[in-house]
Amino acid sequence: MSTEEFSVIGKPLARVDAWEKVVGAARYADDFFLPRMAYAKIRRSDHPHALIKRIDTTRANALPGVYVVVTGRDFPAVRFGILPVSQDEEALCTDKVRMVGDPIAAVAAVDEETAERAADLIDVEYEVLPPIMSVEEALAQDKVRIHEYGDGPNIHKAVAFEFGDVEEGFRQAALVREDVFFYQGNTHLPMEQHAAVAQWSPDGKLTLWSSTQTPHYVHRALAKTLQMPPAWIRVIAAPVGGGFGGKTDPFSHEIVVARLAQLTGRPVKIGLTREEVFYCHRGRHPVSMWVKTGVTKNGEILAMHFRSYVDGGAYGSYGVASLLYTGALQTVTYRVPRYKFEGMRAFTNKPPCGPKRGHGTPQPRYALECHLDKIAEQLGLDPAEMRRRIVVDEYTKTANHLTITTCGLRECIDRVVEASGWREKHGKLPYGKGVGFACSSYLTGAGLPIYWNDMPHSGAIVKVDRGGGVAVLCGATEIGQGSDSVLTYVVAEQLGIDPKDIRMATADSDLTPVDLGSYSSRVTLMAGHAAARAAERMRILIHEAVAKKLEVVPGELVSRGGRVFVKDDPERGVSFAEAAVLAETMHGTLACAGSYTPPKRAGKFKGSGVGPSPCYSYTACVAEVSVDPDTGEVTVDRVWIAHDVGRALNPLLVEGQVEGSVYMGLGEALMEEQVFREGLHKIPSMLEYKSPTTLETPEIYTILVETVDPEGPFGAKEAGQGPLLPVPPAVANAVYDAVGARIDEVPISPEKVARAVELKKQGKPARVGPERLPVFTFPEPVKVASAFGEAADPSVKRKTQV
Amino acid sequence: MMRLPPFAYLAPRSVGEAVRMMVDHGPEAMFVAGGTDLYPNMKRRQFEPKVLVGLRGIQELVGVRGEATTGLVIGAGTTLTDVAEHAAVRGHLPALATAAGLVSTPPLRNMGTIGGNVCVDTRCNYYNQSYQWRRAIGFCMKKDGDICLVAPGSPRCWAVSSTDTAPVLWSLGARARLVGVGGERVVPVASLFKDDGIDYLAKARDEVLTEILLPPVDGLRCAYLKLRRRGSFDFPVLGVAVALGLDGGRVKTAKIVLGAVASRPREAAEAGALLVGERPTPALIAEVAEVAARPSKPLDNTDLTHPYRKKMTKVFVARALRRLAGLPDSPRDEEEVA
Ligand SMILES: Cc1cc2nc3c(=O)[nH]c(=O)nc-3n(C[C@H](O)[C@H](O)[C@H](O)COP(=O)(O)OP(=O)(O)OC[C@H]3O[C@@H](n4cnc5c(N)ncnc54)[C@H](O)[C@@H]3O)c2cc1C
Ligand code: SF4
User: Fold this and answer.
1) Do B243 and B272 form a contact (C-beta atoms < 8 A)?
2) Cα A38 to Cα A36: distance, rounded to the nearest angstrom
């Protein structure tokens, strides 16, 4: 297949929303100003862990300009949370706070200044409890409990699986190696701070505009927490100014403005401060990891045992899924015939962690790829060549029952090795300069929904107007990743029209069919399929009508270039607008729906729901760095990255996603960290939470590899998250190549590098990283036969070779 | 978003008028120039002035006058961009151009002034936080509280002098002109600072810093190195300003001034003295750097750890001196070159 056969797909077109975003015309949630609107502010906890003894709102209520002050008692006593198994959040905390920043009370007032002043006038009395700030403290404290539920005191969840006998694998191995790593937590830092506006109509229905990646889940949470019929609630996702997973949970402020709007009879807006965004968090979990791998002398993996100790923060959020993700995808990149995973997630009194770009997988990827680098060195093998040899086989299953379809990883490896001059550089650059290598894989959409149901994961409606205009209605949420553009391209290709003739109406629970949301790299594949199917149905209706008019059979027609014409006689045809009139005349109002449900391929064991995906993307990365041995500063000079995207529906957008992922990965690798002091976030600001600027962003050479996966629309796989994964380990491995020091802990800060260089000078082991792991006894593993090497189910379509 | 507290803004047209307004409104009032330091601080309620006396409309405060050979005069209201890009400053006082050009970001340098930079508030990561954050941790004595959270037993505040240009101006021997109700005085920049995180300026409330007077440049070589995480945005967590007067390969005068390691810029006088009369050889530079790091006493209240900042003082002083001596940054590179 070549892109020549397409008019729109594969072309580097400008995004459909480029202009409105560049000129500032896009209306984000905080840009909404409604008549009579009030402003809300939330009073948040000053303590990391405390009982609320008393809340006195007298002084706040007395302040002129205040409309209403609410506490948790003004809401139905219902908890919420993104996962059905972790319903542990309250709109406003009633009896207990679990972190600094937990919401306690809220004010609606005439303006933001007044609301803020009133919030500060609320008097809260606490009974302070000992704060638990780390996994170790969570385990040590069995008397003080953050939550009453879970798999043990302060243990949210503990899991263990064994696929095949790993001990047997270790016995056969030529080399068995164990390593310990730590990946520090970090946050999304989107440019846009969360905002929401709520309005009640006179007939008692609620509309909420919010900067959310998952309006459908917000819709469900509002219905639950306000105890209202979902039919009376409309949730609209405004264009989102960056999400990266940070706007994927329903949040207390969304519920609070809804209630305040109801009580005041006014529209109510809330715009969070940057500091409050740090408290919403749901970012990268800090994870301590232990990995043990047995390999042959050629580096073939015989068995792997992986443990993760996950610091969850104050609430469940996506935590159970995040925990499982720290163990799910190790097997998707390289052949791992026997695999054992043990993991636990602890509650701590910090902002809750959740899904950040790569959800739960950058941490184990860091551990695994640094670990493999050490193994390659020990075996005297080239780390790129060794990995190339052990890449998974297409159309097989992994030990943990995940189905691999296409895999372009070997080509990715070859291309970055070639482009970067890897063979001439690795181990050969002067002291202080180095190159590092790493690979990864990521899912293209979670195979299972967040709440149990058998309905489609995505739906779209294509509506054709008498003038030839096309509207696409879809629940998908544009968070800057380009979903509106991708859906436009898909429909334009199917109908043979100019993308400009298409208007997108998205993410509105009243008007658009459900799409589960912009998370897990699912939108291009799932909403893309839904839109493609709806458009295909529309094309059939149109061709039927045009065929009748032209007196041909529908199969002889094609739609392209804004016309519908006879394939073998292109002169014979009609414009798309004329075709629309013919079709509406024949069929009545033109609207077609399409939907998509992913294949059900999860293994038959509890916990198998996290990991399955229609298909997986693959990435290989080489980072070239300069290390200043005196200061420990690491400068990333260049990054080469090859990504198997299945098919690039628009190469410009894919490159944008890859570059953004590299940038974000470098931030995690080198400087970003969520750190706490005396129970408080130490640096909740854009100035002090260090995230790289354009000046720290190196030249990025992006190579797109196309495998045309049978599961993706036009063969497309994901690009939004996977390319982040190999970046931190590639940098760590490059630092080792440059100065011979292992930094087994991100961020790779200058002080750690300087310390490691110093150790090396003293002739000590040149490693900086965790020395020990939390002491925890995992449950007996669920033993499941390894599915490694089994052929993919017959339902999996193999790609047709072209 | 974070909001400013309410205040009245006054716009004097002359220094005299500004001083009078300040006197009229007493302790409720503050001067503001570019506002790039003061306004964000006000949003966090680190300052809650009822009246701001704006200096932006005072023409006499703006511009660089004179010749480098006889001594440049820089108006306090000159923006950092204009200082950094000024031909004579770049040509003769490259350390000053560097320091001004490294402050925060381009948009802030277009607003921020050199006067504001010299007077910039001291910083501490227990203090540069929102009102709500500070309430949560328990306020400190620099604002709203009575103890120091970095050094709990301490009777004083250790907030960090974070100006980039002051260490350079000090090393160059610059002077500052101050105009207040009591008249006008010219003092060395070196005596403008006090070793106290709260009361850090030796300047009366009503005194306007009007100009910076630079000495004639004569065989002077200078350098400024700044330690921070990123190439933009970040305040210094260590600044090293070095100025050497050279005479035929020998050091005639030497001033090494450290920024961001104490509540005021600190001169490493003992280290500077070691250089005078000598040739700056690699061995001497190493020794001087060792001695220069002694007055560096960072505490745990900025980005990066304080032991690291202390360690880097030595590295940075050595680097600055090596650059002025025409040597590569590190002795290691020297061996490689040789
Ligand atoms: C994100 C960010 C990053 C920053 N990074 C840096 C950095 O890297 N290095 C750095 O040095 N600074 C930095 N700053 C601080 C600030 O931008 C600069 O110091 C700037 O030069 C201040 O000048 P200004 O004119 O804006 O001062 P203003 O904010 O107007 O005033 C600062 C203080 O000086 C007083 N003042 C101003 N002018 C006079 C005068 N003529 N006479 C008497 N008193 C006066 C004011 O009363 C006030 O107390 C940063 C600020 C931000 C927000
Ligand atoms: S040094 Fe101490 S008193 Fe000064 S700002 Fe920091 S915590 Fe407050």
Assistant:
1) no
2) 7
Spatial neighbors of A695 by CB under 8 A, at least 6 apart, are: B230, B231, B232
Q: What is the pLDDT of residues A295-310, one digit of tens each?
A: 999 999 999 999 999 9
| Final residue in a domain of this structure, among B39, B60, B81 | B60
Residues A97 and A214 in one domain: yes
Pocket residue to mutate for ligand 2, from B143, B146, B158, most atoms within 8 A of Cβ: B158
* Residue B291, in any domain of the structure: yes
Residue A385 CB partners (closer than 8 Å, separation 6+):
none
Question: Considering the domain boundaries, does residue B55 fall inside one?
Answer: yes
Residue nearest to atom 19 of ligand 1 (CA): B117
Residue B164 lies in a domain: yes
CA distance A596 to A444: 14
User: Is there a single domain that holds both residue B1 and residue B83?
Assistant: no
A518-533 pLDDT tens trace: 999 999 999 999 999 9
B162-214 confidence digits (pLDDT tens) = 999 999 999 999 999 999 999 999 999 999 999 999 999 999 999 999 999 99
- Non-local (6+) Cβ contacts of A4 within 8 A are none
Instruction: Identify which of B136, B230, B332 has the shortest CB distance to residue A100.
Output: B136
What are the strands of the beta sheet with B73-75, ordered from one edge? B64-65, B73-75, B208-213, B175-180, B183-188
User: Looking at residue A379, what is its pLDDT?
Assistant: 98
pLDDT confidence tier of residue B334, bands split at 50, 70 and 90: low
Domain co-membership, B7 together with B106: no
Pairing mode, if any, of strands A268-271 and A96-97? unpaired
Residue B335 predicted with pLDDT over 60: no
Chain A residues in contact with B130 (beta carbon < 8 A): 273, 275
Residues of chain A with C-beta less than 8 angstroms from the C-beta of B233: 687, 693
The Å distance, Cα B127 to ligand 1 centre, comes to 16
| A104 and A207 inside one domain | yes
pLDDT of residue A5: 85
ipTM of the modeled complex: 0.96
Residues of B in contact with A758 (CB under 8 A): none
Q: Are residues B114 and B228 located together in one domain of the fold?
A: yes
Confidence of residue A801 (pLDDT cuts 50, 70, 90): very low
Q: Is residue A183 part of a domain?
A: no
Structure confidence at residue A794 (pLDDT): 82
Kindly state whether residues B9 and B109 are assigned to the same domain. no
- Do β-strands A782-784 and A206-210 pair in parallel, antiparallel, or remain unpaired? unpaired
B22: domain CATH number is: 3.30.43.10
The residue range of the domain holding A492 is 18-24+455-596
CB contact (8 A) between residue B125 and residue A683 = yes
Residues B114 and B2 in one domain: no
> Would residue A401 count as lying in a domain?
yes
- In this structure, which amino acid lies at residue A531? A
Instruction: Tell me if chain B has a CB within 8 Å of the CB of A692.
Output: yes
Task: Tell me the whole-structure pTM to 2 decimals.
Answer: 0.97
Contact predicate A460/A530, CB 8 Å: yes
pLDDT band at B338 (very low <50, low <70, confident <90, very high): very low
d(CA A307, CA A292): 9
Q: Both ends of chain A: CA-CA distance in Å?
A: 6
Section A114-136 average pLDDT: 98
Domains of chain B: total = 2
Query: Are A307 and A428 members of one domain?
Result: yes
Q: Are B193 and B201 within 8 A, CB to CB? A: yes
Q: Secondary structure of chain A: what % helix, strand, coil (to 5)? A: 30, 25, 45
Same domain, B53 and B164: no
DSSP classification of residue A506: E
Same domain, B91 and B37: no
Domain of B254, in residue numbers = 62-119+160-337
Does the distance separating the beta carbons of A696 and B231 come in below 8 Å?
Answer: yes
